[in-house]
Amino acid sequence: MPAPEQLRLVFRHIDEPGYSADLACYLRNGGYEVLRKSVKRRPEELVDEVKKSGLRGRGGAGFPCGVKWSLLDRRSGKPVYLIVNADESEPGTFKDRYIIHRDPHQLIEAIMITCFANRVERTFIYIRGEFPDGARILEKAIAEARAANFVGPDILGTGYGCEVYIHRGAGAYICGEETGLIESLEGKRPYPRIKPPYFPAVLGLYQCPTIVNNVETLCHVKHIADMGGDAYSRMGTPNNTGTRILCVSGQVRRPGYYEFEVGKLTMGQLLNEVCGGPLPGRTFKAVIPGGSSAKVLKFGERYKGRRKVGADMVEYDWGVEDIPMDFDSLAMVGSMGGSGGVIVMDDSASMVEALGNINAFYSHESCGQCTPCREGSLWMKRITARMVHGDARPGDGALLKSVADQIAGRTICAFGEACAWPTQSFVTKFGDEFKAYPQEKKGADSGAGPELV
Amino acid sequence: MNLSPETLQKIDGVIPHYPVKRSAALPLLHFVQEEQGYISNEAIEWIAAKLEIQPINVYELVTFYPMLRQKPIGRRHIRVCRTLSCALMGGYRTCAEFQRQFNTGLGEVSPDGEVTVEFVECLASCGTAPVVMIDDELHERVDAAKARALSQEIKAGAPAARAR
Amino acid sequence: MIQPAAKDLITVNIDGRDVAVPKGTNMIEAARRLGIDVPHYCYHSKLTVAGNCRMCLVEMGMPAVDPASKAPVIDPATGRQRINWIARPTIACATNALPGLHIRTTTPMVKDCREGVMEFLLINHPLDCPICDQAGECKLQEQSTGYGRGYSRYIEQKNVKPKRTLLGPRVMLDDERCILCSRCVRFCKEVAKDDVLGFTDRGSYSTLTCYPGRRLENNYSLNTVDICPVGALTSTDFRFKMRVWFLKQTNSIDAGSSVGANTVAWSREGVVYRITPRQNDGVNDTWMADSGRILYKAVRAPGRLDSVRVNGAESALEFAVREAAAILARGGVAVVGSARSSVEEQFLTKKLCGALGASASLVSRVEKGDGLLVSADRNPNVRGALVTGLVAGLPSARLDSLGAQIDSGQVTAVVSIGEDLAAAGLSAAQLARIAIVYLGTHANETSAAARVVIPTLTVFEKSGTFVNQQFRIQRFARAVPGVSGASDDLLVLAGLTAAVGGPRLRADVESLWAQIAAEVPTLGPVSYGSIPDTGLLLDGRPWAGLPFAEGPSLHFDPVAPAPKEAARP
C-alpha cells in the first residue's frame, strides 16, 4: 500500500521558498488571525475545543493536552503560568528546532492563544542552550509581536495582557522533564520534584499552578483554535488525533522531518517509501520509534494481539513495518511514540555499541539526585564501555538487564525509565548479539560499522 | 567585576522578567560568560550578591550545566555531536578529524590556542547528522572532509594567519 | 476492614495491621508506631522531604470503590474491601496518611527495591568500614546487613572523589563515602540558615562541597555530622578517638544556656569522648549547638581543682568543712549561689543560707542569643533558683551590692558556689578583706584567694535537674565518676549546712527530692523519678512578670502564654 501524502499543518511553511521568520511574512500568510478570532471568544470555549480535539502532548508522554489544562488548580487564587518546553533534547528529535528557527510567530501566536484560554499573564519559553540562534530569533519575534500588540499589556485592544520571556538552558537533558525544568527556571539545580506533592498543575513554578507544554503541542493548539476541536479530531485516528511530525535519523537514505496524520502511515511506509529505504547494500536491523529512550523494535520480530478498531476487537499480527505510527499502536508493541524521533539502525551497526552510545548519553545526563538513576545509569555505561573497549563477558547482557530492572519504576522522575528502557529492550531483543559479542570482538575487527562508543 | 555597560544593561533588563530574582541566575551566567569567556569565582560571587542568594547556589549551577565553564576556551569553540544518530553517521570520525587538524585532545584548548574541541550530547539536528556547532553556528552533515574544510576556514581566520 | 479511628486520627494499614495516626503523618513515622522499620537515608523527621535515596520504597494501595456508585468493592474471597495496589513502588517518606491507605513493606517487590538501592549505594562506596570512623553507627552498614544482598556484582572502576576535606574547623568530609542524601545541605539551609553546602557536578560525579573560600563553621556545624547517615561527615574532635560501640550513653543536658538542649554524653572508662543531641521535640528537636559539645572538656581541663585545701594546705574534706563552719560561725556571711547549680544544689544552698541567716545572690550571664539553641541567658538554671526560692528576682552580672557590704564591713565571709567573685566585679582588695569558702570545679582568682577550697563536680559527674527557659524541668545523669579529690556538691552542701547548725539533710538526689517536693510549691506534683526523659513543664506563672533575658528561639516564644500541660499542684 503506498504511503499517504504528508499533511503539513504545523510544518506548512517550513520549507516554503521565500518564507521567513519575520512578522511581515507571517502576517502575509494569515498570521495572528487565529489569535484575533480567539480573543473574541470565552477562554473556556477554547479549552473545550482543545479537549474535543483529543490533542495529545508531542513532547514524549502523549498526555492529553486538554486534560492537562483542566487539572490546573484555580481555587488557589495564585497566578497561573505557562512554560513552553523548548528544551528539545531527546536524541533523535529535531522538530521544534525548525518551528523555532523558521516559523517563530506560529509558536508565539499559539502561546498567546493558550495563555488567553488559560488566563495566563506571564509565560516563559525554556529554550535549550544549544539553540542560541533560536533564542535570538524568538526574542526578535516577540519584540515584533509586542510592537504589533499581539503580546503585551493590552493584546489587540481586549484589555487582556500577557508577557512572554525567553529563558535559555545550558545543556541539560533533564530540563526537558517538566519539574526539572521548573527548578531550572527558578534558578536551582534542575532536580526533578517528587510527585506527589509537586504536580505542576497545582504546585508548579513558584509553587503556582503551571502548564508545561511542548512547542509542537502548542502549535497544534493554534490549528485547533482555527478549525475547531471536532474538525481537528477527525484528522488522524481515534485517540490519536491530528497530525504529528516524525523525525527520522540514522542509517536511512532520506532522513528528515515529515508531518503525517497520526496513525495513517506505518513504520514500513515511513522508512521504505518516505525515507527511501536502507542505505545502499544495507538492510534495516532495528529502529527506535520515539526518541532514544523508547524501547527498540527489531526487524523480523512479530507483534501479536487484539486491538480495538471502531467498535470491534480485531486480531493483529504485525512486523515492524506494519506498525501504525501512532501513540497507541506503538505502546501496544511495547514501545512508545514518545517525541516522534525515529532512529534507524542497519546491519552495519553493533547493537552492543549502539547501546553503549545511548548509555553514555543517559549517564552523562542523569542529574544525580536519586540513587537508582544516578548509580545505575553510570554502571550500565561502564559495562557497555568495558564490553567495547575492554573485557566483554558473556554474562554482561544479563547483568545489564538486571541493573536496568533495578532502575525503572523506582526513581523520582521518568528519566529512570528513559535510561532503563534502551538497555532492557536491547538486551532482551538482541540477546544473542550481546552473548556473542565477547567472541566476535576477539575475532576479526567487525570494522564495517560506525564507531559508536 | 568589570562588566561592560551593555552587559550590565542586559542584566538589569532581565531580572524583572521573573517574580523571584533567583530565577535570573542562568541568564546572568550566560551574559557574563558571553562577555568574559568563562565564569570566574568573582563572577559567581557577584551574581550571587546581585540576586541576593549565596555563592554556593550559583556555584551549584555553574558545575551542573555543561555549557557553563570555569576556564577559558580556545578562540573558536567546536562542539561535535556524540549522540546516536550522529555517531551512526560518522560523528566519531568527524570529531577525530577536528582533533587531528588542531592537534588537540577533547575538552582542551589546542596548542595554538585556536580552538577547543568538545564532544557534546545531542544537538537536536539528527536528520542532518553528523552535526557540529562552531561557536553559535550549526554545521550539518559534517563528514571528515567537511571537518577538514571547516578547520581550514578557522585556521585562515586566525590572528596569526591574518597577520601574515 | 479498617476500623474507624478516634477523633482527629485516621486509620491506615501497614502490613495488614491497622494503626491510628494524625492525618498527614508520613508513612515512615506511621510504620514506626507499629515497630515496623522502613529503612531510609535521606528522610529526616526535622528536615524537608527530599525523596532522593529511594530506600523507603513500599507498595501502596487504596480501598477500591465502585467508580459509579462510590460503594466499597468487596473481595468475595475475603469478604473485605478490595485494595487496589499500585503497580509502582512509592516512597514512604513522601506518602502521607489518608483514611484507608494501605502499605506493604515486606513483599518481594519491596525487598527487591531495597536490595537494588543498597547495591547502587555501595558500588561507588569505598567499603573500607574497618578504617572508617562511622563504623558502628553507619546506616549504610546497618541497612546493608538488614536489607542488602551481601555480595557485589560490580567489577568496574569506582568513582574517585576528594578525601579528607576540611569543611570547617570542626567538620571533615570524605566525598567518596557520601551518598548524596542532601541531609547536611538541607540542615544548613533550613535550620542553621547558613547556606554554604551544596553539590557540584552531576550524576554519579556529584560532589558535596562547601563554596570555595567559605567554611562550614556556624555554631551548628556538627549537627551535619550527627545526621550524616554514612561516614562522609565526621567530627574533627571525635574522629578516630574511639569506636562508638565501646561507648556508654548517658542522658545529659547542655548547660551552655537556658535552652537546656537535651544531649547524650558518650563515655568509656570514666572518660567522656563526645556530646551529641538527644531528640526532644519540645526543646531542641534533634539539634544542639557546637559550643555545647565541647563542654565535656572541662572535666579534664587544666586548672581542675583536685584537692581540698585549707589555707593553701591540702586537707581532708571533714576538716575543711569544720574549718569552713568555724569561719562562717563568726557571722557577717553572704552566700553567692549559682545559676549553674542544679535544682537540688540550689535547694541545699537555700538551706545553707537559712542556717547561716544569710541571703543569697547569683551572678547572671547574659549575652546575645542566636535565636536557635543558644539563648541570651547563658546560665542553665536561673529558673531553678527562682522555683526553689533561692532568689526572688533575676540576678545581675556584677556583685556590686556585695562589694559595698564588704567595704562597709557588714560582710566578712563569703561562701561561693563555683562563682568567681573577681569576674563578678569584686576587686582584689575586696577579696583580701573577706574569708572565702569556695566550692567549685576549676581554679580562678576566687579559689586562689579562698581560705577553704572544696573541689566539686561538673555536670557530667553528677545527677540532677535544671529548669530551662520554658520552665521545663529536665534531668541529667552522671556519665562518669568524679575526678579524684572532688566531692559531690550535694554532699558538701549538706555537710556544711549541718556543720553550721542547720538541719541534717539527705545528700542523694532521690531522697532529697521527697523533701523538695514537700517544701517547694511548684515542684509539689513532681517526683524525681517521674520526670520524663524529655522533661516536665512547670507552672512558671508566678514569675511571669520578671524581665527575663531570653528572646525567641526554637520552640520558645517569651511572649507566648504558658503551655497548658504545665504541671500544677
Short description:
The complex is a heterotrimer of chains A (453), B (164) and C (569). Chain B is α+β, with helices and mostly antiparallel strands.
Tell me about this structure.
The complex is a heterotrimer of chains A (453), B (164) and C (569). Chain A has 453 residues and is of the alpha/beta class. Chain A folds into three domains: 23-234, Rossmann fold (3-Layer(aba) Sandwich), CATH 3.40.50.11540; 242-346, Ubiquitin-like (UB roll), CATH 3.10.20.600; 351-442, Up-down Bundle (de novo design (two linked rop proteins)). Chain A is 40% helix and 15% strand. Chain A is built from 18 helices and 13 strands. Chain A has a five-stranded mixed β-sheet, with no helix packed on it. A four-stranded parallel β-sheet of chain A has the order 3-2-1-4, sandwiched between helices. The two termini of chain A are 38 Å apart. The model of chain A has no long low-confidence stretch (mean pLDDT 95). Chain B is an alpha+beta fold. Helix content of chain B is 48%, strand content 11%. Chain B has a four-stranded mixed β-sheet with strand order 2-1-3-4, with helices on one face. In chain B, helix 1 packs antiparallel against helix 2. Chain B is globular. Chain C has 569 residues and is of the alpha+beta class. Chain C has three domains: 9-106, Ubiquitin-like (UB roll) (Roll), CATH 3.10.20.740; 124-300, Alpha-Beta Plaits; 309-543, 3-Layer(aba) Sandwich (Rossmann fold). Chain C is 22% helix and 17% strand. In chain C, helix 7 (317-329) crosses helix 13 and helix 8 (343-356) runs parallel beside helix 13. The radius of gyration of chain C is 28 Å and the shape is elongated. The A-C interface holds A 172, 189, 191, 194, 196-197, 363-372, 374-379, 382-383, 386, 399, 402, 405-407, 409-412 and C 49-55, 57, 87-89, 91, 94-95, 112-113, 116-117, 119-121, 123-124, 153-154, 156-157, 179-180, 199, 201-206.
Highest CATH level, the class of the largest domain in chain A: Alpha Beta
* Sheet having the most strands of chain A: 5 strands, mixed
Fold-level CATH name of the largest domain in chain A = Rossmann fold
Q: Averaging pLDDT over every residue of chain B, what do you get?
A: 95
CATH level-four homologous superfamily name of the largest domain in chain A: NADH-ubiquinone oxidoreductase 51kDa subunit
Low-confidence stretches of chain B: none
Total number of beta strands of chain A: 13
